[in-house]
Amino acid sequence: MKTLLLVRHAKSDWGNPSLGDFDRPLNDRGKEDAPAMALRLNHKKIKIDAFIASPAKRAKKTATIFAKQYGVDKDDIIFRDELYGAATAVFYDVIASAANKFDSIAIFSHNPGITDFANLLTNTRIDNIPTCGVFSIKADCKSWDKFADAKKVFDFFYYPKDGLGS
Questions:
Q1: Alpha-carbon distance 68 to 156, whole Å?
Q2: Which residues on neighbouring strands pair with residue 26, listed in sequence order?
Q3: Interacting residues of 14 by C-beta distance below 8 A, sequence separation 6+
Q4: Which domains does the chain have, with CATH numbers?
Q5: What is the spatial distance between Cα 32 and Cα 72, in angstroms, rounded to a whole number?
Q6: Side-by-side strand order, sheet with 134-139
Q7: pLDDT (tens digit, 9 = 90+) per residue, 60-115?
Q8: pTM value?
């Protein structure tokens, strides 16, 4: 059994119009939500063996905050350029290439691709993964290259304003 967590980056800052989309940092709310969500997952004993992220500044920072909460060095985060603006097929490719030693991976990426991908995986449908939302599924497979065809079940969907707390 493998576990996939899809994490949309935390809220980004639109205050500097001279910055390109790729370079937008987290805003104050994003800087609060990311550690709170990482702490919630850790308190609930949700395991993450590998952190795979878009290199865009806001996704990179979100992944770094989560990794820190899990005691993982930021140098161990795997950055994949194709996760920036990723279409659904890209997620399958990134997952298929994950090392099988990891039973649980978290992918940090962007909308609309991350929500579109989440909606392909199980019968659970969501309108939107909000910023810093986490959508988790379990896949009945022993290797990540078998993920696409594996039976999958919805695990949980958490987001900062869901009222569930830590």
A1: 22
A2: 12
A3: 24, 27
A4: 2-12+22-158 (3.40.50.1240)
A5: 19
A6: 78-79, 50-53, 104-109, 2-8, 134-139, 152-158
A7: 999 999 999 999 999 999 999 999 999 999 999 999 999 999 999 999 999 999 99
A8: 0.96
